[in-house]
Write the structure tokens for this entry.
Amino acid sequence: MSAPAPAQATPLVSPALGVFAAWSTARLTEVEAALEAALPQQAPAELGAAMRYAVLDGGKRLRPLLVWAAAEAVAGASLGPASHEAARRCACAVELIHAYSLVHDDLPCMDNDVLRRGKPTAHVRFGEATALLAGDALQALAFEQVLGLAQATETAALAARLGLCLAQASGHQGMAGGQAIDLAAVGRQLNLAELEDMHRRKTGALLRASVQMGALAGGADAAALAALTRYGAALGLAFQVIDDVLDVVADSATLGKTAGKDAAADKPTFVSLLGLDGARAYALALQQQAQAALHEGALPAPQTLHALADWVLQRSN
């Protein structure tokens, strides 16, 4: 595409989103309870404590909300028991994968960051070795959540499909591959296509997978899944463009992480390539592309996904 000229999860609410507030709060309550139940109270040494520290203390929970919204978009506002259970497990899984990626990204061998979600990063709090193991364990726990659906014959095929989707978003085709490109790009100026490719993998892949997994949990047909995949791809890239903007214009207290670190590390960003105004215009074009995909899909209940796309552009952290 060519570029156009903190102790608890915070509900994704802004004055412009009105009715979205109650929906977001209800889904976040269920997600927090499910994560609390899934994470171990006891594990060898400080492993359990490090896992819980990385997951339970804050975060926007956008990925779980995308799962819920996509499931409801294809099934209607009310999910049946089996779809609800699948969506709940997927919502936990994508947040656990996201948390693991943050723990590893913050390590000294990666981005070497000391602040995440307004508190010391996991390796600062627990040491590098425990943080590394906590990330590994969170990744395994994510797949345990999804593959738990395989215990029932009627959802075994769905579990396999969901597990494949999550694996592809997490591995060399997705997050891990994007992080490898990111590390190799320090000090280089990428062109727009290269920058898009990096962030469609590093950030966008899991956001897109969250939408896809929710759609599958809700029983999406091929046409709905294709439309929601387009939505997720555009939204995932828009999220990263806004992240690059906020890294420049917001402070660390607002972001809950170190502001200005991309420029300090000489990393290529959408702002460094397009400028602030250009990056904002690019994000708006991607948001409109995402919302157009919802209309193309003729979904029964796309309103919440539409509101989430609005929030991505309006967010302040």
Observations:
- Residues 1-16 have pLDDT under 50 and may be disordered.
- The two ends are 26 Å apart (CA to CA).
